[in-house]
Amino acid sequence: MKKLRKFLVVSVMVLSVIAMSGLTFNPVNAAAQAGDLIKMDGLSSVYYLGNDGKRYVFPSEAVYFSWYNDFSSVVTIPASELQSYPLGSNVTMRPGTKLVKITTDPKVYAVGPNGTLHWVQSEADAIALYGANWASKVVDVADAFFTNYTISTPLASGTYPAGTLLKNANNASIYYFDGSNYRMVASEAAFVANRFNYDNVVTTTMTLTASGNAITGMEDLSKPSGATNNQVVTNSGLSVAL
Description:
Blueprint: H1 2-21, E1 37-40, E2 45-49, E3 55-57, H2 61-67, E4 74-77, H3 79-84, E5 87-90, E6 99-102, E7 105-111, E8 116-119, H4 123-130, E9 138-140, H5 143-146, E10 150-151, E11 165-167, E12 175-177, E13 182-184, H6 188-193, E14 201-203, E15 238-239
């Protein structure tokens, strides 16, 4: 009875998410291409199909929505095709979008490329970088998936992780920080092509000056990155339908 009650509760929760997001899937198609979001008809997990022919798992809704704004581009493929793509690793949080932590450790980290984590060393640093509401950017990562990330050097005061979108309060221009340069996003079309999200744009007190090449279209930075330790997880995935 308890198992049935738990199943019904989970079912209602998932269906509520689908209803709110207006989730729809494309009909079953064969021969997915690298870069596609794929799922199998009748199953709920969504995968990213990499250039290496492997399918990469989105371990949580938070990770998925750091890369994509909705489920409209998910392609449903036959079971035989899905099974032909071996499992890769978990997709990690998109760099520069969220801060992460685990429930068993109070440390908060900024996410850099390829799942590298940079400890934000103090609350004062967090406020200086992300404002008084910095805590709203923090996402708890399950212990089991924290191993997908690599802890790197602490975040130096006054610096942002590569991947951060930035703007000044008195200027509409948005810049992508690649770790060295502040690259201007040249147009709305370029912003959309790379699936950037205005919710992730940080308004900074630093004076921003364009350096490096402007972003004028889709680039590789829009491709989800997998776990750096190549850990394969076979029983996990983002559930988007029953």
